[in-house]
Q: What sequence folds into this?
């Protein structure tokens, strides 16, 4: 198989002098069916309007996945897989190596935006590109190789069957590149076999995890994307101003009480802190209490042993992304990631592991290597464990017995799912489909949204804002995200978390910030500062005067476009509800008796009114679209009514 090379060298495309600082100025278009790679410019006006990441990806998805009045499915050759970064990637601001993956995902068969960090975004920009737009389907397995002007589709058959870490090892060996000279994002067995919650994993532990993006990559027969750290320089319009904004952001992260624990420990404090709120998911939502010694799960204790900062992200001073060698037990000598909070949750508490921290770290790493989303795996595995305990699943069905807290059994189930073996073939379709197929008490115990998404690793019955966000989201995960300095947006510093109207107004009021951040090529952990600081960094990089108001408008504009794609995919308002277990009332723990179901309709109705969307159709109202500068979308969605 001869490699397909870039058909239009960038040297033949003169860069426009008006390209703003921070941007490479080119997109890379890869057609796997035709085996062609070509660069294409995008205008400074488009750059300011879309920025990159999800802002760029949402436009591409809307324009290029239409099929008549509906949308192409996740497994159709015309589906797009956008691997994008943003204008801050590669610049000296903390956490600026970001990757945003935008596609029609396999989980909900709707639009997706999921982020990973590491060095992908930086390497891509240094090679001269702001994003990769992948379309078509290869006839045989390939990987995409990028090294400055050299862009090739290469034979990947020798890498099939390898997990994501082994794939990166093999490519590094074959290409003669080590460390951060090469960023590799790949799929493992789960992606190759089209598991609907397969992820894309890269740089040893960074994961774009949501909505089956790894299955999309697998359907396109794209095993990996390998990007050499290129030689092109990036320009900041105001270098001094950029460094000053970066210093102010770093200062906030190190000193602000709402961010300092993230700076010191990453997301590790979440285990104990969420446990105190009743938001730590324990045994598939069957309880909110535990007899475990929670002091052993405090962040300093979890950090013990993770003594190597092995795969941190570009330009980042945050103290996480550590690695360790297991010192004892059955997996002694194995190298593992320090799990983020969701790893401790999905590979631990959700499946009843409350003591074996080494086991959780090992299982979390096994899931990354197989490229399974740890959140959905936790809900699937916990559901199977509960089913075997209560009898609505049998040992014969599953193939073996699996009890709460069984790390080795959980890994056995993960490998069955990754290879679609036995009962794993049904589970590979995702929890909603598996539960609906079995029906009865099995369906009642499953945790999912009506659109087919799974929540992140929390018990949202104690975090109603996240349940509302996840369930109404167009992108299969939290679209608004946690409030950060919400008083900057004129919102109250505190609300009653169990008052549906207050919750809905807060979620609606914050809508837009996360989309803005996910368009910049920066990690959301390093944007836990005032939005004004982030806008200052963007302005210094590009030469624009970019305000908080413009940032929120850009984010809400992106949300409206994603909503239009979701509706075209059939993700309508009648699907915006939690499953029976997901929306149930806790019977113990800190949130005992707080009944989200009793306020659900009021909460959703309030949210729709606040964001300016039509409750019946789900469409953004004409006035909302026009206020966002989306007159063209108003005409397409509403016709003469616009």
A:
């Amino acid at each position: 198989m001869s490699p397909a090379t870039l058909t239009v060298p960038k040297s033949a495309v003169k860069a426009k002098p008006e390209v703003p600082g921070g941007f490479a100025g080119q997109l890379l278009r890869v057609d796997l069916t035709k085996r062609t790679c070509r660069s294409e410019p995008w205008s400074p006006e488009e750059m300011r309007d879309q920025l990159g990441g999800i802002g760029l990806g949402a436009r591409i998805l809307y324009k290029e996945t239409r099929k008549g009045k509906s949308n192409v499915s996740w497994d159709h050759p015309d589906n797009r897989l956008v691997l994008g970064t943003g204008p801050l990637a590669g610049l000296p601001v903390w956490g600026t190596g970001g990757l945003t993956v935008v596609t029609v995902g396999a989980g909900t068969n709707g639009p997706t935006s999921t982020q990973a960090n590491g060095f992908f975004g930086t390497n891509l920009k240094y090679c001269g590109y702001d994003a990769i737009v992948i379309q078509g389907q290869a006839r045989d397995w390939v990987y995409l190789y990028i090294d400055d002007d050299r862009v090739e589709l290469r034979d990947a058959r020798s890498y099939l069957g390898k997990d994501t870490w082994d794939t990166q090892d093999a490519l590094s060996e074959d290409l003669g590149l080590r460390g951060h000279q090469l960023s590799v994002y790949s799929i493992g067995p789960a992606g190759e076999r089209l598991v609907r919650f397969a992820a894309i994993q890269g740089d040893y532990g960074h994961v774009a995890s949501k909505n089956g993006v790894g299955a999309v990559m697998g359907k396109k027969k794209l095993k990996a994307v390998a990007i050499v750290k290129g030689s092109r320089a990036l320009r900041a319009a105001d270098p001094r101003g950029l460094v000053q904004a970066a210093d102010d952001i770093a200062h906030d992260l190190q000193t602000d009480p709402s961010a300092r624990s993230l700076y010191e420990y990453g997301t590790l404090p979440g285990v104990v802190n969420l446990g105190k709120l009743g938001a730590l998911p324990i045994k598939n939502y069957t309880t909110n209490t535990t007899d475990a010694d929670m002091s052993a799960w405090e962040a300093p204790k979890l950090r013990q042993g993770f003594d190597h900062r092995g795969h941190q992200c570009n330009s980042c001073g945050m103290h996480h992304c550590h690695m360790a060698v297991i010192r004892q037990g059955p997996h002694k000598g194995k190298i593992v990631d320090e799990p983020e909070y969701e790893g401790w949750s999905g590979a631990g508490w959700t499946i009843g592991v409350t003591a074996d921290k080494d086991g959780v770290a090992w299982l979390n790493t096994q899931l990354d290597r197989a490229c399974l989303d740890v959140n959905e795996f936790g809900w699937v595995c916990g559901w199977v464990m509960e089913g075997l305990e209560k009898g609505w699943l049998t040992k014969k069905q599953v193939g073996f017995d699996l009890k709460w807290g069984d790390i080795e059994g959980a890994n056995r189930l993960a490998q069955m799912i990754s290879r679609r073996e036995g009962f794993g073939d049904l589970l590979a379709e995702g929890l909603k489909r598996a539960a609906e197929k079995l029906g009865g008490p099995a369906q009642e115990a499953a945790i999912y949204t009506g659109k087919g998404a799974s929540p992140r690793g929390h018990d949202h019955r104690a975090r109603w804002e996240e349940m509302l966000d996840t369930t109404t989201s167009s992108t299969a995960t939290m679209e608004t995200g946690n409030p950060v300095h919400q008083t900057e947006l004129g919102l109250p510093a505190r609300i009653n978390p169990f008052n549906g109207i207050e919750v809905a107004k807060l979620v609606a009021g914050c809508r837009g910030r996360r989309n803005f951040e996910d368009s910049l090529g920066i990690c959301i952990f390093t944007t836990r500062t005032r939005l004004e600081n982030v806008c200052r960094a963007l302005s210094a990089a590009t030469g624009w005067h970019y305000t908080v108001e413009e940032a929120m408008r850009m984010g809400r504009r992106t949300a409206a476009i994603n909503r239009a794609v979701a509706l075209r995919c059939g993700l309508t308002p009648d699907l915006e509800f939690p499953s029976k277990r997901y929306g149930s009332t806790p019977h113990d723990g800190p949130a005992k008796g707080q009944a989200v179901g009793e306020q659900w309709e009021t909460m959703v109705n309030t949210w729709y009114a606040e964001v300016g969307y039509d409750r019946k159709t789900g469409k953004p109202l004409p006035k909302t679209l026009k206020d966002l500068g989306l007159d063209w979308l108003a005409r397409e969605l509403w016709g003469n009514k616009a």
